[in-house]
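> forwarded from #structure-qc
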């Protein structure tokens, strides 16, 4: 009988045979290679693998042979799993259990239709993020693969936690534990923080709730955010109200094909994304191709993280063309050639939208600078209070001709139009929200919502 092998990739990689944890090679690249081969589930060319994780100076082919020899010792003790010839390498998984694939098996289909037992089993397999500690950002093709796989599993993890929260509404301790995990997984999620604070208050843990409220306030950059989120399920405004002047400015700029970039500034909740989404629909109707991406705070140190979606949408293989390092002369030349190819591939009528410039990484900011003025049009959004802390983004804007537009809070009439509520109620909500559309909407929802936990997380 073939002895089963377990490969655990969620968290730090582990190999377990017959209940005994095997000792993995200390080499990060060897462990990263193991994860890559398992997740790919197909034969890969040696040349590609040697370029994936090793520099020319490392003698990539020899380094790959060494790593494969170490993996063979671990994988092939009971049955041959590692298959390698002069051209290709693969890992056969017929007699192997892999946690990532088990999670996807357990969660196949709509989560609402699955048994709670299956959901709990899947949750227990999330020991940490995929290939924890093995990002290897100097090797961009592998790094991009790692980030992409993590993003997919993170979305599944979030959906799983939300489904279990809805089912454990009557179990406060369990619900609180799940909410805490959700905040750890999505520290920037307004909804997750709202739910966590609400559950803390419900259990009388007011001091801890107050601490979370202050954290939320700092994160969202809004003085009243922490207090309001403790009771409100937040979601972005869905209707563009009171922004006729701003929309007209964007439309005129696009029609004139004015040089430079258009930047929409405003604090959290003022409706930058809603305004841009409305403008994007206008641009598409006018015959423009639209490419849209957003920067994320947690990826601030990752090269090209902010613009990676743009490359994907352009169907240019960024991860194959991008040099692993851009500090020496040859890498700079390769970078220039790649950027030139990107620009040449863009149609003339292409609108590039990059949101949350204040979280933009250095290489993405430099790319925005290089693309500006070449062809197409560029729209950026940012929180001005946080731009001051991002030197590459500030340098980018300082070097470009910009068309700035700053969003102001809504006035009372605009707030009433947004909420579609009686004047008296609109006046109170406008006063309490300060004209911030996001918080005005949530205050209005709170007025009419029963506020059950199930409604909050679904």
């Amino acid at each position: 009988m073939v002895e089963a092998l377990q490969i655990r990739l969620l968290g730090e990689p582990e190999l377990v045979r017959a209940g005994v944890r095997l000792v993995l090679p200390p080499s990060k690249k060897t462990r990263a290679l193991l994860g890559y081969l398992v997740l790919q589930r197909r034969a890969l060319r040696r040349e590609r693998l040697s370029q994936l994780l090793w520099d020319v100076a490392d003698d990539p082919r020899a380094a790959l042979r060494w790593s494969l020899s170490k993996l063979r010792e671990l994988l092939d003790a009971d049955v041959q799993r590692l298959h390698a010839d002069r051209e290709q390498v693969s890992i056969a998984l017929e007699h192997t259990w892999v946690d990532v694939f088990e999670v996807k098996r357990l969660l196949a289909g709509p989560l609402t239709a699955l048994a709670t037992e299956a959901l709990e089993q899947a949750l227990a397999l999330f020991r940490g993020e995929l290939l924890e500690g093995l990002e290897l950002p100097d090797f961009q093709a592998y790094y991009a693969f790692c980030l992409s796989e993590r993003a997919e599993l993170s979305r599944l993890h979030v959906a799983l936690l939300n489904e279990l929260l809805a089912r454990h509404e009557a179990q406060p301790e369990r619900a609180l534990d799940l909410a805490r995990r959700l905040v750890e997984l999505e520290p920037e999620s307004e909804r997750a923080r709202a739910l966590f604070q609400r559950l803390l208050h419900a259990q009388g843990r007011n001091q801890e709730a107050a601490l979370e409220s202050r954290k939320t306030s700092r994160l969202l950059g809004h003085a009243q955010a922490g207090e309001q989120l403790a009771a409100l399920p937040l979601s972005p405004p869905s209707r563009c109200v009171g922004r006729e002047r701003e929309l007209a400015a964007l439309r005129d700029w696009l029609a004139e094909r004015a040089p430079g970039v258009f930047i929409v500034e405003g604090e959290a909740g003022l409706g930058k994304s809603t305004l841009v989404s409305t403008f994007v629909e206008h641009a598409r109707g006018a015959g423009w191709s639209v490419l849209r991406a957003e920067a994320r705070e947690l990826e601030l140190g990752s090269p090209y993280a902010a613009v990676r979606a743009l490359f994907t949408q352009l169907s240019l293989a960024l991860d194959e063309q991008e040099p692993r390092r851009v500090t020496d002369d040859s890498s700079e030349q390769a970078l220039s050639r790649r950027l030139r190819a990107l620009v040449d591939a863009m149609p003339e009528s292409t609108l590039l939208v990059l949101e949350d410039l204040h979280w933009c990484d250095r290489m993405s900011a430099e790319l925005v600078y290089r693309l500006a003025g070449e062809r197409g049009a560029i729209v950026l959004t940012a929180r001005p209070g946080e731009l001051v802390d991002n030197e590459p983004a500030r340098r980018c804007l300082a070097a470009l001709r910009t068309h700035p537009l700053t969003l102001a809070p809504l006035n009372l009439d605009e707030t009433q139009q947004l909420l579609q509520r009686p004047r008296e109620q609109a006046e109170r909500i406008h006063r309490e929200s300060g004209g911030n559309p996001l918080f005005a909407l949530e205050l209005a929802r709170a007025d009419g919502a029963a506020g059950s936990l199930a409604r909050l997380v679904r």
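QC bot note: Residues 43 and 192 are 40 Å apart (CA to CA). Residues 222-238, 315-332, 449-458 have pLDDT under 50 and may be disordered.
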